[in-house]
Each structure stands twice: as C-alpha cells, then as structure tokens.
Specification:
The protein is 5% helix and 41% strand. The chain has 321 residues and is mainly β. The strands form five sheets. Strands 1, 4, 10, 12, 13, 14, 15, 16, 20 and 22 form a ten-stranded mixed beta sheet that branches. Strands 19-18-17-11-21-24-23 form a seven-stranded antiparallel beta sheet, with helices on one face. The protein is globular and about 45 Å long. The two termini are 33 Å apart. About 10% of the residues have low confidence.
Length: 321
C-alpha cells in the first residue's frame, strides 16, 4: 500500500537528513516573470505553479514545518510557532488577471494557457492517497527563459482554495536545470513551497500525497506531500500540511504547465513525458483498479502548436508535446 511504503521511506530519510532552516524564508531563486509576462504583472514578480506572485508571498517551509489552519500558524520542527504569512500584494493568474487573497477556483480552465494539458478524475467522496513515478527528461534544446512544470496533484473540484502538488520544474528554483519541490497554494494569497532540491536528467522521481486521518475521513485536515529523487535520496516534503478546509475529490495523474514557451524546442527533448506506476486510493485507503483518468487538452489557440495529446491506461499517463 502506498501509505505504508511512504512511511517506511520517511523513517529511513528522517534518520539521515539534517534540517536546513530553523524557520521559513521568502523564495528568492524562482524564475523572474520576465519580458514576456502579461502587461499587468510587475517586473519584480516570480513564476510559480499558480501564476505570478510577489517574492515576499512565496514562503519556503523547512523540513518538519507544519501549517496549522485552525490557529493560522506555522509550527516549526524545533517546537517554535510563527504566524502564517498573509500576502500584502496581489498575485496574477498566468493570463494576467489580478487576484487578491485566496484564489478561488484554481482550476485548469481559469489558469488558461498555463495549463496546456492534463489527465484527471473526480469522485463523489474524496481521495486519501495519490502517487506517481517519473524520470527527469532531457533538457530543452532551446532556452528562451521558459518555465516548465510537470506534476500530479489534488484539488477540491467544488470549491478550490488550494492545490497539493509534488512538482518537477525546469527553470523554476534552478536556472537552466531541473529541480523538485512540494507545494501548497494559496491560503491568504501565499504560496508555500517545501525546500527544493536539484535533480539530474534520468533520475527517477516519486511524487506522493496522502492524508494523515483515519480511514473514511471525508475531509482530512492534515496531509503530507513528498517529492523524492529515488536515484539520489534527496527530497522535498511538506509534513502535516493543511487542507485549508478542502475535500480533495479531484486528482491529476499528470499535468503540463508552461510559461514563456515560444517554440517547440523549448520543451524537454523527446516530445513526450510519462507518469507511471500511478496509484490512487479513496478516503478509506482502498486502491482504484481503474481510476478512470480522462485527458483534457487546453492548447486550442496556443502558439506554438507542438502535437499535444496523450495516451492513458489505469497506471500510466503519457503527455505528448
């Protein structure tokens, strides 16, 4: 079962990992909005998987930090408590629409051209766990300051306030390189990112999300999001992160989100990307034999057109570009 394998892996990792930070810091290494940003987006904003944010509104959480929704605090691994950050700046959807505070409906249709394609499914109850493996692809053969995000994820289909994502990104935290990070966005207009780590072409990555509640809990308040490089043992994790009142009934097996792609060679070489060994469980931790993944292509009207499409099975999703 996914939960058991994750817990065993975490016990091994905790014994060898040293905390990098005592508290949280604003993200400084994310890709700048760049010259191709929408006109409304200020030049000092940065690119995230949720759109453009002021750097002070992207918070890095150290390993072991826990978001506490009830008290609006962050409990650090050393036991100290700090108030949850409230963003003082508007953020912008990838199409340039301005948002203040919580960004309701963080869904592919509202994100528009940033989400190019994805495979997803929904349930009338809720999900308890989602996991996927993938391999870091080759670097893009062209560099136009593009940002590429590839990830599975969980949302509340009926009232999206936040999204949980284990993310592989190009030109995200590391310029002209691949990196992984676990994310939770966007309570009080703030993006929370676990400590990112750089990864190498060919590395095997695992992305997991699971709740920490008893079986049958429809709306679990505590979740773990783990993005792990199985080749090196490095990882980025959100432990006990809040659901911010969400019932996660919308699962994404694999999604492609992009910024500043001007030609097809801005994508990773090879023309496709595969998420495999997919595992999806309901809130009673019973695995779906066939989750019923369906493909959504949002590339209509986009330039460039790069052969977008997908092939899908219960345990594998391949996105073409």
């Amino acid at each position: 079962m996914l939960r058991a394998s994750c817990n065993i892996r975490l016990l091994n990792l905790i014994g060898i990992v040293v905390l990098f930070f005592a508290g949280f810091t604003s993200a400084q290494a994310l890709q700048p909005a760049g010259p191709h940003r929408p006109a409304a987006v200020p030049a000092n904003y940065v690119i995230t998987p949720y759109g453009y944010f002021h750097p002070s509104c992207v918070v890095h959480l150290a390993k072991g930090d826990v978001l506490q929704k009830a008290t609006k605090t962050i409990q650090h691994a050393d036991g100290s408590i700090e108030g949850m950050h409230v963003c003082q700046f508007a953020h912008f959807k990838p199409n340039g629409d301005m948002v203040m505070g919580d960004q309701r409906r963080i869904d592919p249709p509202s994100i528009g051209h940033a989400w190019v394609e994805y495979a997803g499914t929904t349930t009338s109850s809720s999900y308890g766990e989602l996991g996927a493996d993938w391999n870091v692809p080759s670097a893009p053969t062209a560099n136009n300051g593009q940002t590429i995000y590839l990830f599975p994820g969980l949302e509340d289909y009926n009232d999206v306030v936040t999204i949980l994502q284990p993310v592989l990104g190009w030109n995200s935290d590391y310029a002209s390189a691949w990196g992984i990070a676990s994310w939770n966005c966007c309570e009080s207009g703030t993006v929370y990112e676990a400590t990112p780590t750089r990864v190498n072409v060919g590395d095997k990555i695992a992305g997991y999300m699971w709740d920490n509640c008893a079986a049958g809990t429809l709306t679990c308040t505590s979740w773990d999001v783990l993005t792990e490089d199985l080749t090196t043992g490095n990882y980025s994790e959100l432990q006990g992160t809040s659901n911010f009142g969400q019932t996660f009934n919308w699962a994404f097996a694999g999604s492609l989100e992009v910024y500043n792609v001007s030609q097809c060679s801005d994508y990773p070489a090879g023309g496709s990307f595969q998420f495999y060994d997919l595992e999806l469980y309901n809130d009673s931790f019973v695995e779906y034999s066939n989750p019923g993944w369906t493909f959504s292509n949002l590339s209509s009207g986009l330039t460039p057109q790069c052969g977008y499409g997908a092939s899908i099975s219960p345990a594998t999703v391949t996105l073409d570009y």
